[in-house]
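Hello,

Our lab assistant flagged a job as stuck in the queue for most of the afternoon. It eventually completed. Since we weren't sure the result was trustworthy after the delay, we are filing this so someone can double-check. Below is the sequence as submitted and the structure that was eventually returned. Let us know if re-running is recommended.
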Amino acid sequence: MSPAYDKVKAYILELGLRIYQEVPGEELFIVDDTERGIRKLIIDCEGEILVLEQLILRLDPATPAQTYRRLLQMNRNLVHGSFVLDEGGERLLFRDTLALDSLDLNELESTLNALSLGLAENGAELLAFAGR
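-- returned structure --
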C-alpha cells in the first residue's frame, strides 16, 4: 500500500465515512454516509489521482435527448465533480478526480459536500429521470 492510500484512509475515517468495503490490493474503498445521501461511493487511488464515483441511477436506452441536456445544465451548478455516463451510456454517475500528491482533508470533504448538495438540489429531478 502506498502512503497516499494510507492518507486517504485516514481522511475517510476522520470525515466519519463508513467503510463498506476496502480492497487494499487495488487501493480502493467503497464508503457510505447516509446523512449526506452517499451510498457505495467508490474512492480509488489510481496512480497520481484519486477517483471518486457514485452510481446515481440507471438510464433507459430510450432516454430523451432533453434529459442529457438537463444533466449538462445541472453540471454547471456543481462545485466539484460532475454527472457523467459510464462507457455504455446506461448508468449515470457522479465523478470527481483529485490530485493525490496535494490532496488535503478539506479538498476531499468539498467533493463529498458537492455530491451531497448536488443530490439534494437535483434529487426530485434525478428520480424523475429514473422513472421514465
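-- support follow-up --
The delay was a queue issue, not a problem with the job. The result is valid. The chain is about 40% helix and 35% strand. Residues 13 and 19 are 8 Å apart (CA to CA).
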